[in-house]
Amino acid sequence: MKQIHFTTETELNSILDASDAAYKIFSRLNVDIRASFLEEIAAQMLLIQTAITETASQETNLPLQRIESEFIRTIHQLKSYAANCRLGLWMDVRIDTKDSEPGTTLNDLRKTYLGLGTVAVFGASNFPLAYSTAGGDTACAFAAGCAVIVKAHSAHLQTGLLVSEAIEKAVDLFGLPKGLYAQVIGKGNEIGEQLVMHPKVKAVGFTGSYSGGMALHRLAMNRKEPIPVFAEMGSVNPVYLFEGFLSKHTDLVAGWYADSITASMGQFCTNPGILVGIKSTWLDLLIEKLSAKIDKVSPQLMLHQGIADAFRTKRNALINTNGVRLMTTDIETDHSLKAIPSLASVDAKLFIENRALHEEVFGPLSLVVVCENYEEMTLVANIIEGQLTATIIADEDELSQHPAIEEAIKDKCGRLIFNGVPTGVQVSFAQNHGGPFPATTDSRFSAVGADGIKRFSRPVTYQNYPEALLPPELQNSNPLKIMRTVNNKMTRDSI
Amino acid sequence: MKQIHFTTETELNSILDASDAAYKIFSRLNVDIRASFLEEIAAQMLLIQTAITETASQETNLPLQRIESEFIRTIHQLKSYAANCRLGLWMDVRIDTKDSEPGTTLNDLRKTYLGLGTVAVFGASNFPLAYSTAGGDTACAFAAGCAVIVKAHSAHLQTGLLVSEAIEKAVDLFGLPKGLYAQVIGKGNEIGEQLVMHPKVKAVGFTGSYSGGMALHRLAMNRKEPIPVFAEMGSVNPVYLFEGFLSKHTDLVAGWYADSITASMGQFCTNPGILVGIKSTWLDLLIEKLSAKIDKVSPQLMLHQGIADAFRTKRNALINTNGVRLMTTDIETDHSLKAIPSLASVDAKLFIENRALHEEVFGPLSLVVVCENYEEMTLVANIIEGQLTATIIADEDELSQHPAIEEAIKDKCGRLIFNGVPTGVQVSFAQNHGGPFPATTDSRFSAVGADGIKRFSRPVTYQNYPEALLPPELQNSNPLKIMRTVNNKMTRDSI
């Protein structure tokens, strides 16, 4: 166990002076160096893998196996951001040479991206590795050329300290300024608020609750200098069940969703919290099979007391709502940290009227919304707020017969899944982990995938600038050999 | 003269119902159709070119010749956004096929961009065409697949009505829903505020003053559902004069800047408001020549009374500031709408201490900041706030001898110009018209160039989606023949 030191406001000021100075050096290093640095963080984490995974498992109550796969994912993320940083597509390099379009291009313009400055990262309780200290936000910020200050999550402080050590070793090994990375620790919310309000912080990455994300967003927006906040605040990830597919594959769907709802005690931001179906024997059968499977999942410890208490309160409020039917067995748990995996159902009419039923219950619970017909399903799809994901379970031809539902669903989500489950966020180039408010504070960005780097960088155009003083990605010879748009054509060629 | 009708709140509600419905149809049309629609707006404007340019010139006091070139620029912008909309690079299409990276890509993911919804556009007084009704923001919003509501600028209502007619004709000719475009008119700020607060408005584009932009930004951020605001709020566009180049080209630089400071009575957001030089005979000579040239420019009418009054007040405050020296002749004007082209100077020590001197004086005025040496110039570059542009006037080798100044300048601007003037914003792919706060409310975006479209669109990823139901840009056959990133490689090939 490492000693916990709470950061004072004076310390915070010197941390930010150092990070600002470090940013000025780091942001000018080329993408190859930044990429290698990310790979070094991964290497340093691998050296202390067992310590990290055991500590994280102890701190979060998540099974070691689950943490081990998250560790592998985190290493993959770091390497993937490194590869993409080097590939350079995120910089969208554009070059318009003088007179390439006579009468229009009177100047030579060259555009690249520059890191915003110091980024404050607030990690998630449910992903102590992949969305925390050296998680996606930190990797994106470093790839963009930013300095990073992580606000340690109180639910996994020891894990955070171990991972911070790995980052600090990488900083040392690369001879980078120590200020490039720091972690701050506070007893309550105060240190996080001071961080977001600090004039030297230029952007915020957050993963967590709606109330936490919005509190930071409002602070940041009402600063004298507003700064961008990307807050991923979870969602209910609605699943729309069409009759044709369901009637043929009830077992399959029940199996998919029993796992998806209860895996890691439902503590995923992409957990399917609402299943929308059409009143039918098939839906009854699905509910029956799903309830039976969920009943077989024994209550397990949740991440921490706050989350366990919130789940209990929200679950109880839900199942005691007039018109809501609990479909699983209402057992007692033997521990206040344990959650009861649950399935409930409600008629769409009631769901549409009662906004409280649309809210996320973070944990192993789904609400089946029973619609009279597809018109009612369209109403539900239209009334539901912005989501990280939405899922359509359907035969292809029946989906194409209901374009209004498909359109309504599409307008509300960042990722649209066909015949699958929303849990399991693949880390690859085409991924989008974002979505319309209130899923995130800015639907134009993603927390996963190479474009996540864009959250923390801004375009700069050089006009008629001397070749020798241009950053390498803009030089005629294209020394980084990246793909560039030169006079509206994509090419790796030199100019 | 067309009759002016002030939009009521009830009318605003029905306008927004219609625009929301129109968005749902328009956003699903493919980029070819959206591009052709933009071209049709240009064609419709060309049919009434004389009426538009004469009206705009009368309403803004800008010379007809200046308005005519702005008209041509506006047509070029519409065509350029159409071309870029069709080219499709702004959609950053990414496709990761299943098993392209075994163990990682377990799903087929395909990412494209979707318009945000209805965009509210607030045009600028100084660009009644290029940054107004059918200006860059409107073109970007349509290209993204959004509906547009323009808040008419009270300084050029008749121009706005004429251009609106052209847009409405294009809407009709394309058989698009009428709600796709509307203009609202109000006596004060109220209608604009109602627009920004309306739940069916999903983004805001603004070009104008700091106070106007920040008022809308704060409203939008404190909505129940915050929405993105891109406000371009102008800047002082500092120019850094290095001794070597200046000593050899004093005449040339004086000529460039006399024009750049006084063209259109300095009413450009990229007007060079601050010139930073090193105390020397060369700088004295530049000031002398520049003052003589500026003195020869006769006072002309400004855009409207509010802008003329603000210029007079701010100019007087500046030249009456202790330590500020007026270098041009302090003449009287014969009309309260006329501005006196002016040059003043101040020592850097005083400039650094007095923040009021850093503020934009919108009009034909520049302040020369006289530094003792390059260290003081570095201090000035570090203390200046975020800017749309910064300009370096230097020999290449002397610039490379002062990396600290160059770095400080780079961190504060969206466009960095070498040996030129900041006025004249080339409309091409590599352009960036944006910059760190307070130049804009979000430095990650640009108001000019194809990436401007990104302000009003968001990524959506389709997971394992049926081929036939994918938008065309994501289909295997690549029917739009756009460049896509397939399994981390850029290609136009089909899959």
From TrEMBL, chains A, B:
<dbReference type="InterPro" id="IPR015590">
    <property type="entry name" value="Aldehyde_DH_dom"/>
</dbReference>
<keyword id="KW-0560">Oxidoreductase</keyword>
<dbReference type="Pfam" id="PF00171">
    <property type="entry name" value="Aldedh"/>
</dbReference>
<dbReference type="InterPro" id="IPR044151">
    <property type="entry name" value="ALDH_KGSADH"/>
</dbReference>
<feature type="domain" description="Aldehyde dehydrogenase">
    <location>
        <begin position="3"/>
        <end position="297"/>
    </location>
</feature>
<dbReference type="InterPro" id="IPR050740">
    <property type="entry name" value="Aldehyde_DH_Superfamily"/>
</dbReference>
<dbReference type="InterPro" id="IPR016162">
    <property type="entry name" value="Ald_DH_N"/>
</dbReference>
<dbReference type="InterPro" id="IPR016163">
    <property type="entry name" value="Ald_DH_C"/>
</dbReference>
<dbReference type="InterPro" id="IPR016161">
    <property type="entry name" value="Ald_DH/histidinol_DH"/>
</dbReference>
<protein>
    <submittedName>
        <fullName>Aldehyde dehydrogenase (NADP(+))</fullName>
    </submittedName>
</protein>
